[in-house]
Amino acid sequence: MAPARPPVLHRFANPGRFLRATGRLLPWLGGAAILVLAIGLPWALFLSPPDWQQGETVRLLYIHVPMAWLAMGGYAGLALLSVASLVWRHPLADLAARELSPVGALACFLCLVTGSLWGKPMWGTWWVWDARLTSVLVLFFLWLGHAALVRAFDAPERGARAGAILALLGALNLPVVKFSVDWWNTLHQPASVARLGAPGLHVGMLYPLLVCALGFTLAFAALVLARTRAAVMERRIRALQLAAARRLDRPEVSPGSAAA
């Protein structure tokens, strides 16, 4: 017997209810993302002050830092979806995880690319095998591995189960990414926003960074919801097509032939 689903999760287990709820939410979410990014990106890229040490290269961090947060937070969400799939057999958790992994991989890729572009003028090299950089690279491979694994099986259930197990094992890398700058003597600087005491950034740079982070988070959520909605509708269409094909393949028995 499958474990009982929690009531809150069970409410959204119905695909029709999920489509109706997200259909109302998605336009507002997408509109809010566009509005916040329309404010945050010009503020960060053109109006915020240059850093006294980094100069204009600090503007890369307005994209790099939110992408790093999304790569880690998104993977934590992937692990939670994997728990919902393995423990409660939530029917939408597999679809949401499947559609989340390419978006998370993109965020992690942008994090690595912008960090490399920033590192060249600041560190004098595109890449170093620093503990933080290496653990983020491992996170990127975990995102790609999940995206490939869930699509590698003919039976979607087998791919979803294998991907869920990989996601839970890969979640062990998240503390390494977070605390690597504290555990080891790394080239990467420690946290300057989410730390005890006052942030290490001037408010002229902190506020546009937070606005950009909010905008990218809203866009990330809207993209994942849109992909999940499309996957749900695709599955429903396939189910209808399969049912129609079965009806066509089933021979019709006339009353006369039945009597004979």
TrEMBL record:
> Domain named Cytochrome c assembly protein: which ranges?
32-188
Q: Which family does it belong to?
A: Belongs to the CcmC/CycZ/HelC family.
Keyword annotations for this protein?
Answer: Cell inner membrane, Cell membrane, Cytochrome c-type biogenesis, Membrane, Transmembrane, Transmembrane helix, Transport
The entry's protein name is Heme exporter protein C
Q: Provide the GO MF annotations for this entry.
A: heme binding; heme transmembrane transporter activity
The organism of origin for this protein: Roseomonas acroporae
- Membrane topology value: Multi-pass membrane protein
Location in the cell reads: Cell inner membrane; Membrane
TM helices/strands, residue ranges: 25-47, 67-88, 100-119, 131-150, 162-181, 201-226
What GO cellular component entries does it have?
plasma membrane
Q: Which Pfam families would you find in this protein's record?
A: Cytochrom_C_asm
